[in-house]
């Protein structure tokens, strides 16, 4: 499922290689490093993909101070849904994407709301 909003785009991919390919495709279409995020249910995997793709992780700039602090006390699933919502998606979309992440997939998001 791809989701395109006025400001946000998301695509579920099967693995890190596909995530890097999607990041490169998004860069080719005009998105910058600061616009692109990679999310995985496994934090170490997410970190490796973010480093390899030279892109962003969702942080305080996107979630705000309180959202970032709250994530310290949330389950990984709740944290991921919060991050997805902070990038301009609805709760229902965040639930869908988080379930896909549970199955080992990777989410690539391009969002100009971070600018």
Automatic annotation (TrEMBL):
Pfam families: YflT. Residues 11-104 form the General stress protein 17M-like domain. It comes from the Bacteria. This is General stress protein 17M. It comes from Paenibacillus albidus.
